[in-house]
Amino acid sequence: MKNLFLFSVLILNSIVMNAQIVKDEQDVQDKINQLVSKLTLEEKAALCLGRDDWSTQPIEHLNIPWIWLSDGPHGLRRAPATNKPGYGDQLPATCFPTASALAATWNLDLVYKVGQALGEECQAQGVNVLLGPGVNIKRSVLGGRNFEFFSEDPILSGEMGAAYINGVQSQGVGTSLKHYTANNVETMRMYNNSNMDTRTLHEIYLTPFEIAVKKAQPWTVMACYNRVQGVYGTQSPYLLTDILKKEWGFKGIVISDWFAVVNRVEAMKAGLNIEMPKVSAVNDSLVVAAVKNGDLDIAVVNQLVKEILTIVFKAKSQEKEDAEFDMQKHHAFARKVASEAITLLKNENQVLPVTKEKYKRVAIIGEFSTAPRYQGNGSSEVKPTQLDKVLDIIKNKYGKEIKISYAQGYKLSDDNDLSLIEEAEKVAASADVALVFAGLPLHYESEGIDRTHIDMPISHNKLISEVASVQKNTVVVLSNGSAVSMPWIKEVDGVLETWLGGQAGAGAVADVLFGKVNPSGKLAETFPVRLEDTPAFFNFPGEQGDVLYGERIFVGYRYYDEKKIDPLFPFGFGLSYTTFEYSNLKLSAKNTTDKEGVSVSLRVKNTGYIKGKEIVQLYVSDKECTLQRPEKELKKFAKIELEPGEEKEVTFKLDARDFSYYDGKREMWIAESGEFIISAGASSRDIRLSESLNLQSTQQVPLAFDEYTFFKSYWSNKQTREFLKELLPNWIKSFTPKGKTMDEAVFPDFMAEHPMIKYPYITHGEINNDQVMELVEKCKNLTYRP
Ligand code: BGC
Fold it and tell me: Is ligand 1 within 6 A of the CB of residue 99?
């Protein structure tokens, strides 16, 4: 309410009217309408372009203010001024773990709190909109920006995005949900066409955005660089207006990714509010000309401007004067977040945790332990307020009770230099356990460039193998933003995936290695054995500007399941220092309808000796479906904490959408009747409990028959069969056995499997083309129950 008041006061000031009490949002909109009526066409065009690199255009004589937009996503990259790029000279801010790490926590409350902290930092540094989160799907392991995105799964990505947005926006700071949509490859990112079918677009690439928009209403959505189904994301009326604004009810503004606009007039027609950044005003004059010559409707421009002003005033009304943030507190919180993301992938012979009872001498090997790899390359690069190093933390915190030795192991400056391995072997051999810090150097993962392979540098891989050959207790501690191959996996006892853990990641790693924190992260993306096993292998990064999404909906685990390929580590996998038992999976009903849905409950018990957190995953499989469906799909998840011996009940509610597929022909979600299997798992390959459910659909779905629908389909539908009997009695009778009715006619497949449009020919002229089209017209409004 207070915000609404401030909001109104700002607008009232801006149109130089006497202050009055503004009662509701309608009032605010009325004032915005008045403002729009005072703007010239040139000013409207200018408002639809940024002022410079990071701000919106103010209109001074009407007191329309500007707002500050800044990267994002895992920390604030605020330039010294809105007209400076802010690379290298950005203001210090807390560098939180990147999105891959956040997703590996599977903890929505925690991600919400990360958002809150980011929002606080934005308020303190005068930023109104943080440019994140990125909910693009990790379609290929090679995607250069995978570190900046959450997951290969649309539900997990969308829920993470929504939690992040709600957190940031709770602080009166907006977000930019990016990059809308199907922005999954960096190679030729300014031109590539994400060429996919409509079903895939909806089920995989739109769903995360849909969840985030519906659950969190980001103030802005950032339209992508690439083309989607042949149309630039910034110019697609289907994506920006039909889906985003109309179908999902998005109430904010669409801004372009930086330099993503090709044709500003077409972009505005499609629903793009602001082109970013401002390089020149050339496009403003094109907009003015287009309005004047009737190509661009002024009503469209007015609507876009109203939406912009709504967000600008909303942002200004929520600014907090003298806002500050507590750097130390945020650093400590970043450490906690990083520790929840850490994913224990292998722990043979309980090599971890390191305790003084088990080991007296610990070898720390690898340059990453002194020069941490903690974030990715590109626009998301944060200048951290401080940066912890794991060697220092281990020495200071644990070095009194355990002897710590160190070897550099490899040179980050030269991947191929193997000269440091021998010394590392010696250090490893004279310890009781070796912790090898390895992974992907910074230049391996970058915005703008895709990876060409999934291997770590040769110096890292060789080092691990050599250390493991002299030290049986070898643990590999990985820093990387996306999956890597592990040729040495059988040679080592332990693997700890620590992701890109942000500025405080080192402390988190030490806490997990030494058992202060029980690891609880799980993979939000599949780790393949080989690049050749991955879903987009043949179609990444595309050719001649076209990226064929040939694997369709079979992205990530959906593909490995279907192809029965064993990954190195499956989606949803992660170990703990304790163990969990699942029991008592119950459905609220064995038979239900799409409208009623079903409640699912199960019990999870900590069967070990220490406190731990478990991530429970709920998958749904459609056993009988007209269309091809993945073996199973993640629909819900929960992270719970359990004391040793403690047991908790977890409940989930599944609704119509959780059973549905997207029908590309009918352009709608359909939940078909039939059997579904509901499974609870500790990972996508560790299903612990399953129950069968019978779903009765109450939907009425358009039949969608046309002239290309086969005779066979018309014949098998009760209603349309009657039409055929009237239209083609002679032809049907010629296939009716003697003494039988027309309904008992038997058509050879060869005949029946032709589209109706061919039936004038097939029936020797018993009907003509017009009659076929009349039949189609008659069937237009028919529906069926799926
Ligand atoms: C990136 C966006 C980023 C923008 C501003 C673009 O190149 O794709 O994610 O927010 O630049 O830096």
Answer: no
For residues 290 and 697, give the distance between their C-alpha atoms in angstroms, rounded to a whole number.
49
Distance between CA atoms of residues 501 and 481, nearest Å: 9
Residue 602 neighbours by CB under 8 Å, 6+ apart = 582, 583, 584, 585, 586, 616, 649, 650, 680, 689
User: Cβ(183) to ligand 1 under 6 A?
Assistant: no
> Annotated active-site positions, please?
257
| Average pLDDT value over all residues in the chain | 96
Q: At what angle do helices 207-216 and 154-169 cross, to 10 degrees?
A: 30
Spatial separation of the C-alpha atoms in residues 15 and 7, rounded to whole Å: 13
Nearest CA to ligand 1 atom 6: 258
* Nearest alpha carbon to residue 339 among 571, 163, 107: 107
Q: Name the DSSP class of 600.
A: E
Is residue 427 within 8 A of residue 467, CB to CB? The reply is: no
Looking at residue 758, what DSSP letter applies?
G
User: Model's pTM, two decimal places?
Assistant: 0.96
User: 10 Å Cβ neighbour count for 676?
Assistant: 24
Residue 224, ligand 1, Cβ within 6 A: no
Look at residue 670 and give its three-state secondary structure: strand
- The residues that bridge with 223 in the sheet, in sequence order, are 180, 256
Protein residue with least CA distance to atom 2, ligand 1:
257
Q: What is the pLDDT of residues 57-87, one digit of tens each?
A: 999 999 999 999 999 999 999 999 999 999 9
Q: How far is the CA of 221 from the centre of ligand 1 (A)?
A: 12
CA 138 to ligand 1 centroid distance, Å: 17
Question: Can you read off the two tokens belonging to residue 551?
Answer: 């694997």
Three-state SS for 534-568 is CCCHHHCCCECCEEECCCCCCCCHHHHHHHCCCCC
**How far apart are alpha carbons 718 and 630 in whole angstroms?**
30
Query: How many angstroms separate the alpha carbon of residue 504 from the centre of ligand 1?
Result: 24
Residues listed for the chain:
786
Closest by alpha carbon to 64, among 253, 308, 227, 400?
A: 308
Q: What is the pLDDT of residues 299-320, one digit of tens each?
A: 999 999 999 999 999 999 999 9
Output the six-digit token pair for 152.
């290969």
What is the rounded average pLDDT of the residues 633-656? 98
